[in-house]
Amino acid sequence: MKRLVNLRPSRPAGILLGLLPVFALLLIYVIASDARLEANPNDKLLPSFAQMGEAINRLAFEPSKRTGEYLFWQDTGSSLTRLGLGIGIAALIGFTFGLITGALPVAYSSMAPLITVISLIPPMALLPILFIVFGLGELSKVALIIFGVAPFIARDIQRCAQEIPREQLIKAQTLGASSWHIVWRVLIPQLLPRLINAVRLSLGAGWLFLIAAEGIASTDGLGYRIFLVRRYLSMDVILPYVAWITLLAFIIDWLLARLSLWAFPWHHTGGAR
Amino acid sequence: MIAIDKLWKEYGDNVVLENISKTVQAGEFVTLVGTSGCGKSTFLKMLLGMETATRGRLLMDGAPIRTEPDQTRGIVFQQYSVFPHLNVLSNVIIAREFEHSPLMGKLFGRQKTQVIEEARALLEKVGLANAALKYPHELSGGMRQRLAIAQALIRKPRVLLLDEPFGALDPGIRADMHKLILELWREHQLTVFMVTHDLAEGFYLGTRLWVFDKVRHDPQAPGAWGARITYDLPVGKTPATTVAAIEQSLKLTEQKFDANTGETT
């Protein structure tokens, strides 16, 4: 018998092992839900899968009685728009500042301390200020995501820019490159895959800020909906929504990973000298 | 072509190079050897413009050398000196793109075809013709250094600086690279400065060998005295074996000294 540390599952066995805890959790849920519903058919805490399916069917495939809209898709659309705008603008701002401070020592001296300070401000503490300044509309929600994510991306890109071997920058200069050439042809192409990576890492925080802002002040959105139906203890809506948000987060992350592999194959081969 | 006039380099109290005076003619191939920390790499960096002299002058064609790297001095480092995000061909033509396109740093159309032709000829010479569309990570260490050399040559620098360029390569490949660099040196009439760890390399390559060594040594203050050029030998004209033996023993004692002081400080 091999030592436990040397025991590696084969590929199918590995997949099976990975699915095991998921099924175990689902099974526990079904048993618990059945037990509660048997005791009280009106119990709302642990709805059955049939009840959840019914709730989502109502929200996703039947027009709302009040507005005539398909709430589930409207919520998804609004949330994804806000998230996309927020993360997109944050990536643009973060990349710009990270690149400038990482590439130019003068810019680093003048801006890096401020960026560090800004990145230490808890973004949620800014939310009231954003509501006061930008009102309760779309802008304040997008602004929260930008405030929360842009400093992180800026610092990450700055660090990556400084980690590009100095030899490359000197080599470029011996080939006659100007500062602009170095930024445009040497730094930016090598930092783009790092940007994708930074965005992937910051998406979790992005979702957090989105749902928080929607929960506090909004009229639609995935976060708004789960905070709204909480009042009626509608776990049959909340649980599928949470699962849907998780699935969306997974898909976005996967798409970004594929994009990076497809667009920057040289980045994913490890130690290129 | 290059004149070194009473050159000193100090970092605070730490003297790295003391009082170096030499002249180098165009077309010479100078090999720089010495123990680690003896200042040979610092000297190369001063030629490149990354470091400035504390005292003394470093002249190229009678004028002080620019204190910033530029296209008159090409460089090949031991590693990291090719661009990982560009394929072999783009790695070479990028130099011409810097030259002809100040705004975009990129060439298109007829101009680009011309430059590609030039780059292909150069790649042919260094033996990378078949790898033109590969990325650096797909190349072996030796091929990567060939690429770095081709890159350094396309702007036709007057001086080629080599910082332990073959240090990370296998001996067999290193011999091929020696042949290549000698060929290119003759063909392009370059002035070459090469730093190396390998003493044999110093005797085999080039026209001139400089040995960097500390003449005086204070065990209480290892930084108080800097290195000088203790030997300046024309390669091939001295009985190489005896000189090598002397040098080897010199280096051993130097290393012992360093080890001693390293422990006490």
From TrEMBL, chain A:
InterPro entries, A to Z: MetI-like, MetI-like_sf
Domain called ABC transmembrane type-1: residue spans: 76-260
SUPFAM superfamilies (alphabetical): MetI-like (SSF161098)
Superkingdom of the source species: Bacteria
Compartment annotation: Cell membrane
Keyword line: Cell membrane, Membrane, Transmembrane, Transmembrane helix, Transport
Membrane topology according to the record: Multi-pass membrane protein
Name assigned to this protein: ABC transporter permease
Native organism: Gilvimarinus algae
From TrEMBL, chain B:
InterPro entries attached to this UniProt entry: AAA+_ATPase, ABC_SmlMolc_Importer, ABC_transporter-like_ATP-bd, ABC_transporter-like_CS, P-loop_NTPase
Residue stretches making up the ABC transporter domain: 2-239
Matching CDD domains: ABC_NrtD_SsuB_transporters (cd03293)
SMART domains found in the cross-reference section: AAA
PROSITE patterns listed in its UniProt record: ABC_TRANSPORTER_1, ABC_TRANSPORTER_2
Keywords: ATP-binding, Nucleotide-binding, Transport
SUPFAM superfamilies according to UniProt: P-loop containing nucleoside triphosphate hydrolases (SSF52540)
Domain of life per record: Bacteria
GO function term, MF aspect, one: ATP binding
Pfam families, sorted: ABC_tran
Protein name, entry field: ABC transporter ATP-binding protein
Highest classification ranks of the organism: Bacteria, Pseudomonadati, Pseudomonadota, Gammaproteobacteria, Cellvibrionales
